[in-house]
């Protein structure tokens, strides 16, 4: 009898722990999305108002599936000044697969707009070490803080 009560209680505790894990995960996801948006908006405002650049959030449909292997929306941040084209990826965290995805999105943009990017830049406070290695091979600049990005390269 006591053993059964213990098992029932253990199952209830595990169910509550699982529910808490899901709630924390959802909160973290919302936090990441909101902080990315806030950071993107602030950076765009600073660059546009203080440095006279144009910051565009590009959201285009890849109907051939070139980027993700199937038709899907492709979202990028593009900075333009005096003909200079910089393609940026701003994320709360960046994995190895995120770097590969960013590179495919950048090439998609270049092909669609028939313009070569001068710089590819990834900005995130959490960049996986494997992502850094891939980024270096692909020529993607990576910064853990927007203040680390040099104005000219």
Question: Would you mind describing this structure in some detail?
Answer:
By secondary structure, the protein is α/β, with parallel strands linked by helices. It has one domain: Trna Endonuclease, Chain: A, domain 1 (3-Layer(aba) Sandwich). It is built from three helices and five strands. Strands 1-2-3-4-5 form a five-stranded mixed β-sheet, sandwiched between helices. It is elongated, with a radius of gyration of 21 Å. The model has no long low-confidence stretch (mean pLDDT 82).
| CATH class label | Alpha Beta
Helix content: 40-55%
Number of E-state strands: 5
Number of helices: 3
Structural class: alpha/beta
Mean pLDDT reading: 82
Task: Give the CATH architecture.
Answer: 3-Layer(aba) Sandwich
The name of the CATH topology is Trna Endonuclease, Chain: A, domain 1
Overall number of structural domains: 1
Strand content: 15-25%
Low-confidence stretches: none
**What gyration radius follows from the Cα positions, in whole Å?**
21 Å
Chain-wise SSE layout:
Blueprint: H1 2-51, E1 54-62, E2 72-81, E3 84-90, H2 96-113, E4 119-123, H3 129-138, E5 141-143
Helix pairs in contact: 2-3
Brief description of this entry?
By secondary structure, the chain is an alpha/beta fold. It has helices at residues 2-51, 96-113, 129-138, and strands spanning 54-62, 72-81, 84-90, 119-123, 141-143.
Task: Sum up the structure in keywords.
51% helix, alpha/beta, Trna Endonuclease, Chain: A, domain 1, 153 residues, 5-stranded mixed beta sheet
